[in-house]
Specification:
With about 70 residues, this protein is an all-beta fold. The chain has one domain. The protein is about 0% helix and about 35% strand. It has a 4-stranded antiparallel β-barrel. A hairpin with a 4-residue loop joins strand 3 and strand 4. It is globular, with a radius of gyration of 11 Å. About 25% of the residues are buried.
């Protein structure tokens, strides 16, 4: 799953994000979602989240889907 739909993302989820400083290279950072920052239901570059580490980035991949989901 990618990170463009807000409904797919919630606190506690393991994700990969691109931090602002890494936008030029596309380097991804792995972390646990602490807070969802994007208010809209979708975003073409990924939903913006704050990780448990305090870093902020846009979700590029959801690494641990909810129980019962495949993907």
């Amino acid at each position: 799953m990618d990170g463009r739909r807000r409904q797919d993302i919630h606190p506690g989820l393991l994700v990969e994000v691109v931090l602002k400083r890494d936008q030029a290279t596309g380097q991804r950072t792995r972390g646990i979602v602490r807070e969802i920052l994007t208010p809209s239901p979708t975003h073409p570059r990924g939903i913006k989240v704050r990780l448990a580490s305090g870093e902020v980035g846009r979700v590029q991949a959801i690494l641990r889907p909810e129980k019962g989901e495949s993907g």
